[in-house]
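Researcher: Excuse me, tokens okay?
***
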Amino acid sequence: MNDRHKIPDETISEALRELPRIETSPDFTRRLVARAENAESERTGTTHGWRLAAAAALVVALFGGYYLQQHNKAQRAIEERQALVERQEELRRDLEEIRARVATAPTLYVGTARNVDVVLDLEPWIGQPAVRPASYTPNRQ
């Protein structure tokens, strides 16, 4: 039974047998094969067009992603370099401040002890009354 039209298969077979026989032309096979090849080449050409467009889009996406990655990497390098330059300037100012303090601070170089330079800071004693040795006796006659 034909599910689409609810017609028994025997009825369809009888109707097909009653149709007149048609003779095919001698070049029927050649025309059929040519038409099939033509349809295949048209379908393949369309498929190649879509494939080519998809491949081009993929290449563009890959190059775009690579460019974006390189751009971000370069931007981070620029930011890191700027941070280093700022830190270097900060350290240079600190060093200048330390040198200025050392240049104005009264110090006394005592010498070297066990490969260490000994420097005495005299600032705490500036303005203090002078200390006299016990053996010092002024105006002794």
